TrEMBL record:
Gene3D superfamilies: Isopropylmalate Dehydrogenase. Homodimer. GO terms for cellular component: cytosol. The lineage of its organism: Bacteria, Pseudomonadati, Bacteroidota, Chitinophagia, Chitinophagales. Its EC number is 1.1.1.85. Substrate binds at residues 98, 108, 136, 222. This is 3-isopropylmalate dehydrogenase. SMART domains: Iso_dh (SM01329). The gene is leuB. Keywords: Amino-acid biosynthesis, Branched-chain amino acid biosynthesis, Cytoplasm, Leucine biosynthesis, Magnesium, Manganese, Metal-binding, NAD, Oxidoreductase.
Length: 358
C-alpha cells in the first residue's frame, strides 16, 4: 500500500458537515486496500477569521505545503455577502491558497449518473450521455489582476490580465486530457471584445498545432453558455479562464443534476487540492441536510489524480452509483419523479455510501 499525508480543511457552513464524509470514505479505502493515510486538520475561511483574524493562517498554509493532498469543504458566510465594505473576507483564504500552491488548473468533471436523469431541470433526452471535463484556469484573470477604487470612491476596477505562459500551461493540460477522452477540445473566451481573450485565443491556436489529432473549437462565452444547455453532448473537454470557468461550471452543474454532485481537483506545481464546487450554503448549514456526495466524489478524485489509485477511485464512484440506484436521495437531488425514493440527511446518505463501499 501507499503512505500519504492528507490535510482536511472543512472550512465554513456545510463544508463542516460534508467533508467529514469525504474523510470517512478515505479511511475506509485505506483499510480495504491496506494503504496508510494520516490526517491533519486546518482552518480556513470565516472560521479562521473568527479564530485568528486571518482567512488563511500561516499554520494552515504550512500544513498544506507539507501534505500530499488536501481535502477542502467550502468557504463563505452571509455576514460578508451582505456587507461589501468588510476588508478581510473568507474567500481571500481560498484564493490565497490556490495562488500559494500554484494550483493553476481546476478540473471539473461533469458527468450525469443515469439515476439522476430526472433530477435536473433539463430534459432527460438532452442530458443522457453527457460527459464534459472542464479545465478552469485558476490563478490568473480578473480574480488576481490589480483591484482599484478611485480616491473619491465613485469608481472601481479589476484588471483582467493573462500572461502567455499561464494560457499555455493550462492549454497543454487540457489537450493532454482530451487525448485520453474523445479528442475534442473547446476553448471558451470573449475574443470579439476583450484583449485578454485575444491573447488567450492566439496561444490556444499555437498550442493546437502540437495536437493535430485533437479537434479544436473556439467559442465565445455567451454562445457557450447557451450551447451547454441546448446540447451538452457536443462538448468533451472545455478549457476557459478563471471567471468564465467559474460561471460556466455552476451552470454545468445542472447537467449533473445538482451542485451537490460536483467534485473538483485543483492541480499545478505541487500538492493537489480537492473540493466540491458548491459553496458553504449558509441557508442550510447546520441542518444536516446537505448532500455529501460532492465531497465524497472529491475524495475519489484525490485517489485517482494525486495518488494514482484508479481502482480505489472507481470503487468510490461505484459506491455512489449504487447508493443512487437504491433510491437514496438528499433534498437537492430528490424531485417529484423520485419514486420509491428515500429522502435523507447528510449522515444517513454518507453512511449508505460507506455501506456500499464495504
Ligand atoms: C468556486 C467558488 C470560488 C471562486 C469563490 C468562493 C472564491 O465560487 O470555487 O467556484 O469564485 O472561485
Ligand atoms: Mn464558483
Amino acid at each position: 500500500g501507499v503512505v500519504k499525508k492528507i490535510l482536511v480543511i472543512p472550512g465554513d457552513g456545510i463544508g463542516q458537515e460534508v467533508t467529514a464524509w469525504g474523510q470517512k470514505v478515505l479511511v475506509s479505502i485505506a483499510q480495504n486496500y491496506k494503504h496508510e493515510f494520516t490526517f491533519e486538520e486546518g482552518i480556513m475561511g470565516h472560521v479562521a477569521i473568527e479564530a485568528t483574524g486571518e482567512p488563511l493562517p500561516d499554520e494552515t498554509l504550512e500544513k498544506a505545503r507539507n501534505s500530499d493532498a488536501i481535502l477542502f469543504g467550502a468557504i463563505g458566510h452571509a455576514k460578508y455577502d451582505n456587507d461589501p465594505t468588510l476588508k478581510v473576507r473568507p474567500e481571500q483564504g481560498l484564493l490565497k491558497i490556490r495562488k500559494e500552491l500554484g494550483l493553476y488548473a481546476n478540473l471539473r468533471p461533469i458527468k450525469l449518473f443515469d439515476e439522476l436523469l430526472e433530477a435536473s431541470s433539463i430534459k432527460p433526452e438532452i442530458l443522457r450521455g453527457s460527459d464534459i471535463l472542464f479545465f478552469r484556469e485558476l490563478t490568473g484573470d480578473v480574480y488576481f489582476g490589480e483591484k482599484k477604487r478611485s480616491d473619491d470612491r465613485q469608481s472601481a476596477s479589476d484588471l483582467m490580465i493573462y500572461h502567455r505562459y499561464e494560457v499555455e500551461r493550462i492549454a497543454r493540460k487540457a489537450y493532454e486530457a482530451a487525448r485520453t477522452r474523445r479528442n475534442k477540445l473547446c476553448s471558451v473566451d470573449k475574443a470579439n471584445v476583450l484583449e485578454a481573450s485575444r491573447l488567450w485565443r492566439e496561444v490556444m491556436q499555437e498550442v493546437a498545432k502540437d495536437y493535430p489529432d485533437v479537434e479544436t473549437e473556439h467559442m465565445f462565452i455567451d454562445n457557450a453558455a447557451m450551447q451547454l444547455i441546448k446540447d451538452p453532448k457536443r462538448f468533451d473537454v472545455v478549457v476557459t479562464g478563471n471567471l468564465f470557468g467559474d460561471i460556466l461550471t455552476d451552470e454545468a452543474s445542472q447537467i449533473a443534476g445538482s451542485m451537490g454532485m460536483l467534485a473538483s481537483a485543483s492541480v499545478g506545481d505541487s500538492t493537489g487540492f480537492y473540493e466540491p464546487i458548491h459553496g458553504s450554503a449558509h441557508d442550510i448549514a447546520g441542518k444536516g441536510i446537505a448532500n455529501p456526495l460532492a465531497a465524497i466524489l472529491s475524495a475519489a478524485l484525490m485517489l485517482d489524480i494525486s495518488f494514482g489509485l484508479k481502482t480505489e477511485s472507481q470503487r468510490v464512484i461505484k459506491a455512489v452509483e449504487a447508493t443512487l440506484r437504491q433510491g437514496f436521495r438528499t433534498m437537492d437531488i430528490a424531485n417529484k419523479h423520485t419514486e420509491n425514493g428515500f429522502i435523507m440527511g447528510t449522515d444517513a446518505m454518507g453512511a449508505k455510501v460507506l455501506e456500499n463501499l464495504n
